[in-house]
Design a protein that fits this description.
The protein is α/β, with parallel strands linked by helices. The chain is built from three helices and seven strands; from the N terminus they run αββββββααβ.
């Protein structure tokens, strides 16, 4: 194979341009995140529990985030249905556009003595923040604590209080976060159990 200096220079320039685009964050694009927890209790399934916990690190000038928890109990007596959605979005840039949608619903249909809870917490850090590995580890410990509520058999009101306390811990972690390094890849982690 013959060496072509002009071709080698062009390849070298393309590699340098590609690496510089990665280091500077690439082109400005919209980034989206979607998180959904769903729990459905019925005559055949008296106890239903779901946690959707998402940590998303973005590097974008536009952020679109949707977080939803949907719980329902149908045609049963004494059913227990809990859906918990936590979405954490941190942007390494200052986004010029943020579109956030957060929704939680709890519905009982033909149900007596049912406990149904749909709760959604959404945290969007719209200042230059890069989550460190330590920050992410702390957040994933919150996820484990949310899942431990599955075994509590507590009433929905008590679970809601515990979830609210954990949301306060997430807010504290995020208020002190942002000492991470600029990774060359975007992190997208959703933990569905």
């Amino acid at each position: 194979m013959k060496f072509h200096p002009k071709r080698a220079a062009a390849v070298f320039a393309a590699v340098i341009m590609g690496v510089s685009a990665l280091v500077t964050g690439g082109t400005a694009q919209a980034s989206s995140a979607s998180n959904y927890a769903s729990s459905h209790a019925s005559y055949w399934n008296h106890h239903s529990f779901d946690v959707a916990f998402q940590v998303r690190q973005m590097f974008s000038s536009s952020v679109n985030a949707t977080n939803e928890a949907d719980a329902n109990s149908r045609n049963c007596t004494g059913c227990h249905s809990v859906a918990i959605a936590f979405q954490i979005v941190a942007d390494g840039k200052v986004p010029t556009h943020v579109s956030a949608h957060n929704f939680g619903s709890a519905v009982n249909v033909n149900c007596s003595d049912c406990q149904t809870l749909g709760i959604a917490y959404q945290f969007i850090v719209a200042k230059p923040t890069v989550l460190s590995w330590s920050d992410q580890a702390k957040l994933w410990r919150i996820d484990a604590q949310l899942w431990s509520l599955y075994w509590s058999n507590a009433p929905a009101s008590q679970i809601a209080g515990q979830v609210s306390a954990l949301a306060g811990q997430v807010a504290y972690i995020l208020a002190h976060a942002g000492h991470g390094y600029w990774p060359l890849v975007h992190h997208y982690i959703t933990w569905r159990h």
